[in-house]
Amino acid sequence: MKNRPYEELPVATTALQGQHSSFAEDYATVVRWCLENCRVGAWSARFRRELPPEPFGLAPREGIEAAGPNERLAHAMEMVEERKDEFSRVYDLMPDDESKDMLLTVLAYRGLGWRFVKLPLDTPEFHKTISDLQADAAAASDDKKLATSDGFAVLSTISLQKYGFDADVLQGGWGAFSEFLYSQYVYRSEHGILAPCDGDVAFDCGACWGGTSLFFADRVGDAGKVISFEFVPANLEAFNVNLAQNSRLAKRISLVKAPVWSNDKVTMTAFGNGPATYMAIFNKKVRIRNKIKGLFKAEYRDPERVGNFSVDATTIDKQSNRQTNGQADFLKMDVEGAELRALQGAEVTIRRCKPTLAICVYHHLKDFLEIPLWIDALGLGYRFYLGHGTTHGEETVLFATTRELQAG
Question: Counting Cβ atoms within 10 Å, is residue 23 exposed (0-12), middle (13-18) or buried (19+)?
């Protein structure tokens, strides 16, 4: 397929055969089709990888793994029922059938699990490339490896020259693929792509080990600039190595050691480690309790849990003024569920520059709704597309743009 060499079409494309109707009707059709046609056998790579039990769109019910088709159908439909009207609004915002089919496929995956829904990247070509990258990582000499100080990972420097990129990336095989080789922050369709362009100013919010920052730096060229946001010390160890061994690209990258949020100079506490580090606000006056209500719970954190460290947040609005004189062309966010709050801290920049947005929405089901509806409510003429960058449930990315799609 043009622009998508590793991918198949979403299963919703086969299920609907080009006949789209309302969100509710199309989603029900896709779920039923998957239940009838897509039972995965023990031959599948998904079994061999021993993925955790799913579905995960709902709190798992006892016995759902052994449930029959009617119970599984009810389980998947319940996932969207509470906010069906909002799902319909988001569905109607998407101008192409490819994004609608991706949304239906990803939601069906979240509702039914991997035994019934095959995601587009689950192809022999993808698995062969991942195996090759993992072999490259394993073959790296000890002086080309880094064990992060938080114990999260042992990373290897992988040369990407044979894949067509002039870069040596300290990563794992999966990360090298999804951050650089076939970046999940590029939207690909039959009609073209969305990605940073030559001369762009790109923001990489949640830069982690730096693979995406390097990829963006390669895309924007000498006339462009990348502003990277990363603050976790163990992540910065790898980030700094990546810049040191890619001097051609490093000169285009500026680092801001702070998380992005809706307000500037808010003191936040970091929890977790590696790419999954998340932020929360705790103090003696704000005692946040873990209150769960249905499928669309507010993502509160336990205030009694001990955090790793504290750091002051910043905003995109502040940093775009400070770093780029207000220019912003491409804005990527993968900030572990804080995407909507971070977008609120970028509203002035978004209104002024209308950057293309690549925003992760997979952390919470409500983000599939609240993030595109918030962007649409700005009234700036954004069009919405959806991509998915793995063979499992993570890495669904919402793209919003006022640009035309580029030739692939």
Answer: buried
